[in-house]
Write a structure and sequence with these properties.
The chain is an alpha+beta fold and 285 residues long. Helices cover 21% and strands 27% of the residues.
Length: 285
């Protein structure tokens, strides 16, 4: 169902990017309204709904409207009884952390090391610090459109080598050596640098950090230096939306056309508790 069938009240999250959807309660909204919410997501790169009160079952049902819910590579911080809900937190209960802490710090797209990366990421704010812990979203379509035509021509056929093993063994937070099982479950993949959005054909400069081991056919360090240059381009202030969290926020962003990062906060003073869910995606082209 198209958004035209239900007139949603929206306002941009940033210049030409995203949509805050107003006056919609996910818990009570009818089918046509929820269909319009999903349609808005596909066309705007990210959507925000504030003031929500959702239990894990409702969160799982809502992400299912975008696509089949995706599993998590790391299982130890999924919510008991709700395997599609991943916990982000610095809380420790009975001597054990209840969630992943400082996960997602560094510009990236989720599951870019998979043959079919997740389409969208949803974060639901249960408990947020009064300062810090912002989420930043970079509009990779705007970044591509702003490149000179000559530069676009130079980049359009490049491909990136993504590696989960490389990412986990070199990341700043949560570094670990993978088990043979995880290595087998997450083989390296090759994706295009310039990605086409299946909803409307718009192009995105689909660069990332962390998982990118090399540009195919380009030696390092030159290849990784080019990646750094492109990430710096994409993450200029003019392309970035900074989300300051409130409890009850539901933020859903499109991994097919955005880059994102979490930010740090004073974890000696404050607690943070977020629920993260993913919807399956398709092979980039």
């Amino acid at each position: 169902m198209s958004e035209a069938a239900v007139a949603l009240r929206t306002r941009p999250l940033g210049p030409g990017f995203g949509a805050e959807i107003e006056d919609v309660d996910i818990h009570t909204a009818d089918e046509a309204t929820l269909d319009a919410v999903v349609d808005t997501f596909h066309r705007h790169g990210a959507i925000l709904l504030r003031g929500q009160t959702l239990d894990p079952a409702e969160l799982t049902a809502f992400i299912g409207r975008f696509g089949e819910p995706e599993d998590h590579t790391q299982k130890q911080f999924t919510l008991p009884g709700y395997p599609k809900v991943f916990v982000l937190s610095n809380r420790v209960v009975d001597g054990k952390p209840i969630g992943a802490h400082n996960d997602g710090v560094g510009w990236h797209t989720d599951y870019s090391y998979k043959a079919e990366p997740v389409m969208c990421t949803m974060l639901y704010a249960v408990e947020v610090p009064p300062e810090g812990s912002d989420t930043l979203l970079a509009d990779q379509c705007a970044a591509w459109d702003a490149l000179p035509a000559e530069r676009q021509e130079q980049l359009k056929d490049l491909k990136l080598h993504h590696s989960y093993q490389y990412f986990m063994e070199t990341r700043e937070y949560g570094r670990q050596t993978l088990s043979e099982e995880l290595k087998a479950q997450n083989p390296d993949v090759i994706h295009p640098l310039i990605r086409t959005h299946p909803a409307d054909g718009r192009k995105a400069l689909w660069v990332s950090t962390g998982t990118v081991k090399e540009i195919v056919g380009m030696p390092n360090p030159e290849g990784l230096q080019l990646i750094d240059e492109l990430v710096e381009w994409v993450t200029q202030d003019r392309f970035v939306y900074r989300h300051k969290w409130r409890e009850g926020d539901v933020l859903v962003w499109d991994n097919r056309c955005t880059l994102h990062t979490g930010t740090l906060y004073d974890d000696t003073k404050y607690y943070r508790l977020m629920h993260r869910l993913w919807a399956k995606g398709d092979k980039p082209f």
